[in-house]
Amino acid sequence: MIPIVLNVNDVNYEIMVNPGEMLLDTLRKIGFTSVKKSCDTGACGICSVLVDGKVIPSCSYFTMKIQNKKVITIDGVEEKAREIGQFLLDEGVDQCGFCTPGLIMSIIAMENELNEFTEKNIKHYLVGNICRCSGYEGQIRAIKNYLEVS
Amino acid sequence: MIIKDYILPNSLSEAYELLKNNKKAVIIAGGAYLRLQKREVSLAIDLENLGLDYIIEENKLLKIGAMTKLREIETNEYAINELNGMLSNMVKQIGGVQLRNIVTIGGSVCGKYNFSDILPSLIALNASLKFYKAGIMNICEFMENDLKSDILLEIIIDLNQNGMVKYFKSTYKEYSLINVAIARNKNGFNIAVGARPGKAKLAKLSSKILTTEKDIDKACEILLDELSFKTDFRASDKYRKALTKTLLLEAYKELV
């Protein structure tokens, strides 16, 4: 086990981690169970968190890389998450809800990064977030409503 | 992957010494693909803190640090505006944005992955690779040789040429069923094809005979003969050959 300092949502956690531990497992271990585990191969986007403002699948990120970086989970953006979540609810696409935290983190990263929100841009940015319940049309409608684009 | 120890060196010399003195050590770049492999590693040497994350242009040479993330390449102004956007296009359907924020170009090159969307373009563009010990090496030489105990620092691409990449995927971010890259420099054309599903290769004979549009059918015929195409669970060899022909023609037309 190796001692590290992990900064999550502006709080420092002094913890011991296994050398090969992935950030997703570390986050869940210290109580951030809002970060869900699904494909565990970096394909589905469900475990997405922000590291220094960039959205990453935490299942594919070695915890040892994280020193001196800042992690934001959905718990750290509660107000924004509620706002986006309401748009998803309004379109009825929250469904089982398992992928929603990851999708919301990606939407926040997209909003910060892109200058122009065309349907093509949105789809290209969010193709890494998979929802097993539905066909994405509703999500796209909700996201467009949230971003106030037609 | 089981990792016994994990070190993030603060200098290249430290990283190299660790690598040289530990036979079972592995270099971690992004680590997203490496972690899926079933193996035990005595020491992981992570290059995160070595400042190898950069894209700079000098005298029409684009220098990309080995630890540069694919998303940074995708959105870089030189990658978008030079070479018909070939460098941006080659990475933009590799996983989602999230994964491309982790995956590095150095890791993708050193893995020599069969499914790589990056290697065909770098081969067609005749990229140079800069290593800590071996110095500068051409990418084709690297592809054909086993390089042990060395660290890739930089990928160098000559911008005094033109390029185009075409690939075909069954879904948007799936591995390519075939990847065709073509570049034109002052000496002529370079065509490379990857995901056949073998490792990306330069089609030497086909590249040589291609000079004008009337040669394209002949060049294609030679290409299908000189490179091997195989059937796997993603596609048959026949399908891959048919795709290659179409994509090469498309790429050529858009290039010239």
Describe, in short, the structure shown.
The complex is a heterodimer of chains A (150) and B (256). Chain A is of the alpha+beta class and 150 residues long.
List keywords for this structure.
heterodimer; A: 150 residues; alpha+beta; Ubiquitin-like (UB roll); DNA polymerase, domain 1; 2 domains; five-stranded mixed β-sheet; 5 helices; B: 256 residues; Uridine Diphospho-n-acetylenolpyruvylglucosamine Reductase, domain 2; Enolase-like, domain 1; five-stranded antiparallel β-sheet; four-stranded antiparallel β-sheet
Summed up, the helix count of chain B is: 11
Strand content of chain B: 15-25%
Shape, principal axes of CA atoms of chain B: globular
Low-pLDDT residue spans of chain A: none
Q: What's the oligomerization state?
A: heterodimer
Rounded radius of gyration of chain B (Å)? 18 Å
The share of residues in extended strands of chain A comes to 15-25%
Q: What is the tally of beta strands of chain B?
A: 14
Mean pLDDT of chain B: 96
Instruction: Give a quick account of the main beta sheet of chain A: strands, pairing sense, barrel closure.
Output: 5 strands, mixed
The name of the CATH superfamily of the largest domain in chain B reads CO dehydrogenase flavoprotein, C-terminal domain
In total, how many beta strands of chain A? 5
**Which sequence of SSEs, written as H and E, runs from N to C of chain B?**
EEHEEEEEHHHHHHEEHEEEEEHHH
Helix percent band of chain B: 25-40%
Which structural class do you get from the secondary structure elements of chain A? alpha+beta
Examine the secondary-structure arrangement and name the CATH architecture of the largest domain in chain A. Roll
Number of domains of chain B: 2
Mean pLDDT of chain A: 95
CATH level 1 class label of the largest domain in chain B? Alpha Beta
pLDDT < 50 stretches of chain B = none
Shape verdict of chain A: elongated
